[in-house]
Design a protein that fits this description.
The structure is a homodimer.
Chain A: H1 2-13, H2 18-28, H3 37-49, E1 53-56, E2 66-69, H4 71-82, H5 93-99, H6 105-132, H7 140-169
Antiparallel strand pairs in A: 1-2
Helix pairs in contact in A: 1-4, 2-3, 6-7
The structure holds a DNA duplex.
Amino acid sequence: MSLRHAILGFLAIKPMSGYDLRKHMDASVRHFWPADQAQIYRTLQALEAEGLVSVEDTDNSRQRRVHSATPAGLAALDDWLRTVQPVEDSREPFLIKMFFGDRIGPDGVRDLLLARRVEAEEMLATLRGIAASIPPKGDLGLRLRRATLLSGLRHVEAEIQWINETLQELD
Amino acid sequence: MSLRHAILGFLAIKPMSGYDLRKHMDASVRHFWPADQAQIYRTLQALEAEGLVSVEDTDNSRQRRVHSATPAGLAALDDWLRTVQPVEDSREPFLIKMFFGDRIGPDGVRDLLLARRVEAEEMLATLRGIAASIPPKGDLGLRLRRATLLSGLRHVEAEIQWINETLQELD
DNA sequence: CTGCAATATAGGACTTGTCATATAAGATAA
DNA sequence: TTATCTTATATGACAAGTCCTATATTGCAG
């Protein structure tokens, strides 16, 4: 039920088409909420049917549907934002491989860990790059957006630390 | 596609009923792969249909279906274990709330962070408890199972660190 | 002016997982 | 003995998301 609210959040900033939404989400929240194009459009339709979003058709003769959050939509967004929810449980296929790793022996496991470290380090570089481009000061919104990036960063760092720990454990 | 392999992994250790499977998974991999009962039974059916699992009906007149991994099942498991897969992308509803946190102001955001820290600290205590009960040495299998726990631990620690960082940022 | 990339929306088929509920047998405690 | 708990399996309805494909327009480069 988060995509609905992510969409409402973006539309609260400014009205947009589904296409714009996809671009914006891809550029800013993809690392903690990857959004599928088809899913965005379908959610937009549902939101419209519920009266949480209104649509202004045809932006100067182009086939383009600009969506805005209605007052009801903003209220629903803020309610959701304020609601404390239990921590969602994560699914980590990689840990399943580790759990049964004895079947492929220490060398097999080491291969998996090394490959994962490469990916984690790429992610680290990417996130650090983006983080560096955000000014450390600013208003609440900007500082919180920076914080979501930092969260990704901290977790990737933890992942690399754990990989190194586990590699040592393997010897 | 991980539940199938988790199931094969458990059946490779010893033949089990769906019921046992659920119990075992709940006790060992739940923190990185929570498994739904209905899903376990349906996956077992699919696995059986594909010949990756065989079933021995009626264990002494009880209505109980004991499943074993077939040679094909073990081969499929090991193939999967050895396959390097791209890092799965995570979904973090909480970060969406942070991203749009300016709508509920610093106090609203602080409430969310504090509530989350409570949950994270409970998780930390739980994982530490389990980790303490596992001997630090042992064979590869045991050390890897311990490592999956350590992974959870490292990430929860990182989460708490980030929460504290972000709370400071709020002032 | 033609072909190609980008803009823009949408639906079908499918997968994975969730939640609720049904069913039935054996074990145990009041 | 009756009620209840645990063991044990299964299905229906649904939600969320993925992947693929279709369609149409606009703008730009060759």
